[in-house]
Specification:
This protein is mostly beta strands. The chain has a single domain (7-145), classed as glutathione-dependent formaldehyde- activating enzyme (gfa) (Alpha-Beta Complex). The protein is built from two helices and eleven strands; from the N terminus they run E-E-E-H-E-E-E-E-E-E-E-E-H. The chain has helices at 33-39, 140-145, and strands at 7-10, 17-20, 26-30, 44-50, 54-58, 61-67, 73-79, 85-89, 96-100, 114-116, 132-134. The longest helix is centred in the N-terminal third of the chain and has 7 residues, at 33-39.
Amino acid sequence: MALEVPFEGGCMCGALRYRCAEAPAMTLCCHCTDCQRRTGAAFGITVSVNTSAFSTLKGETTSWLSIRQSGSKLLFQSCAVCGTRCWGDLPDIPESTLILGGTLDDAISLEPSAHIYTATKQPWVSIPDNIYEAENKPDWRKVFSS
């Protein structure tokens, strides 16, 4: 089942809401230690969308610049009320917005096309055979073509 467009999401308290008017360019699960710490879980779910199709419906954000394990920069946008991180902006790739998958209203319909940084994945996590996997920095052409 694919994510229906448009799709929406938001923070835990409901003060911050967003909408995306286009299908994601890709969805992936990242097993790096940064994502494990950020989510408090085994991996993070990232949904990449065109920034031009993404809009904030309501609420105020606070920002935090993170230098990722890969060396890339990600400017996280969090709810100013409850602190839930909802998306990230890439200063080096302004046409992409990275939505944190757990903040979607209908996350059950996400279909990850890749699992990355699996060298640090939890040993009890199983990855389907037909999904692109990268132990370290992925080949982004393969991630976006999956």
